[in-house]
Amino acid sequence: MTERGLSVVVPVKGRVQETRALLASLRDAIAYCPEPVQLLLVDDSTPADARLHRAHCTEHGATYVLGPRYVGAKRNLGVRLARYDLVLFIDSDCLATPDLLQRHLKTLRTAPPEVGAVAGPTYLQGADTTVFRVMRRSRLLNAAFEWPGQCRRVAWATTCNLAVRKSAFQSVGGFAERPLTVVGGEDVDLGIRLTEAGWTITCDPAAVVVHDKGSTDSLGTVSRRLVTYGRSGQWLLDVHPKRGRPKLNRTGVLVLAAMAALPGLRHSRGRTALLVPLAAAALLARDTRERLAPTDESLTSVAEAAACALLDWSFDLGEFIGALQLGRPDRIFTGFGWTDDEAFEWDRTPDRPYGG
Predict the structure, then answer these.
(1) 183, 151, 137: which is closest to 295 by C-alpha?
(2) Is a pLDDT exceeding 70 seen at residue 310?
(3) Measured between alpha carbons, how far is 302 from 209 in angstroms, rounded to an integer?
(4) Which among 77, 123, 178, 335 is least surrounded, fewest beta carbons within 10 Å?
(5) How far apart are CA 151 and CA 289, in angstroms?
(6) What is the DSSP string of 181-247?
(7) In which element (H, E) is residue 90 found?
(8) What is the predicted pLDDT for the residue at 352?
């Protein structure tokens, strides 16, 4: 019989110093937790980084586990090795707040039996940089991290801050181990399967995790993350086809504009090539307006909103790539209905659907 307590599963590759800081924060949080806690680090780093991870696990009382490449498979392995009946998933580039463990433990212990998981919000560390200010306008990059601070319950939650009953997790088969991307989408899929199986994912706005600002330290980093999210959306459409909905894909529009321009290039002396920049300008103007607050009047605000819109197009690019990778070009203008579910109970409904 599984013992009562909390097992914490951390998947990792690289991120040596960030993971050391996470382990230290978890060790501090254990002091406030009324039940026993087990820390499991599941790693597939290079040998040099793995040696450091092992040393840091010894330093902070964690168990080091050599794991597979895909993040979902790492988490599944962690759950199989979990000693206790409750499991918390947290990411290696995050920090636990002091009362994180006790909050999750208390919420699950006092919740009705149909509550299979508890989601807490994850907030990005502040940074006074241009990239940070630009991406604070995005509804894609960190929006889902903050939903548990805005909802009473959700259909799915990011697994950088999600506690589950081990029995509920096992009842739906755990995470998908080979999605389209190494990381991305497996948390959404898990939550939807839990919800469809009759479990509830409730939210605790006070169970807070802090995300390292390294995830938004450069425009390239942000763009790559959004491409991954977009690709994962197409994989989710394969797994949950009923959640597809029409979506304006900016990359798809520009590709169609380019294809329409090509036949007339010679006869128009290249003028039909203007279709692409004209379409791009119209889309950018529309998306920039959506990201401007009523109080935004300065040129700097407009420039930041336009930059955010362009970066958010990386998500559309990911959807475009994912549709082609999966052999489904017919889905280029179909998006995944990320929040199209009555299981979401909002304190404040978002202004625009995630992924829109």
Answers:
(1) 137
(2) yes
(3) 31
(4) 178
(5) 26
(6) SSSSSHHHHHHHHHHHTT-EEEE-TTS-EEE-GGGGSSHHHHHHHHHHHHHHHHHHHHH-GGGEEE-
(7) strand 84-90
(8) 64
Q: Determine which helix (DSSP H) or strand (DSSP E) holds 59, and give its type and residue range.
A: helix 47-60
Check residue 331 and give its pLDDT.
Answer: 97
Taking the mean position of all CA atoms in its chain, how far away is CA 306? 23
pTM score of the predicted model: 0.93
Closest by Cα among 239, 252, 266 to 313: 252
**Amino acid, res. 179:** P
Q: Which amino acid does the sequence have at 127?
A: A
Helices vs. strands in the chain: H and E counts, helices first: 12, 14
Read off the pLDDT band of 258 (50, 70, 90).
very high
Contact predicate 332/237, CB 8 Å: no
Rounded CA-CA distance 305/295 in Å is 13
CATH 3.90.550.10 fits 3-217, yes or no: yes
- Are the CB atoms for 98 and 216 separated by under 8 Å? no
Q: What is the mean pLDDT of residues 145-149?
A: 93
Q: What is the per-residue pLDDT across 317-332, written as a single tens digit (0 to 9) for each? A: 999 999 999 999 999 9
C-alpha closest to that of 210 among 12, 18, 15: 18
Angle at 166 between CA 239 and CA 180, to 5 degrees: 25
- Residue 351, pLDDT score: 62
pLDDT at position 137 is: 86
CA distance linking residue 282 with residue 155, whole number of Å:
34
What distance in Å separates the CA atoms of residue 302 and residue 306, rounded to the nearest whole number? 6
Intervals of CATH 3.90.550.10 along the chain = 3-217
- Structure tokens given for 177: 């181990």
**How far is residue 126's CA from residue 86's CA, in Å, rounded to a whole number?**
31
- Residue from 121, 108, 102 nearest 167 by CA: 108
Q: What pLDDT was estimated at residue 155?
A: 96
In which band, very low, low, confident or very high, does the pLDDT at 59 lie, cut at 50, 70 and 90?
Answer: very high
CB 31 within 8 A of CB 113: no
d(CA 153, CA 70): 28
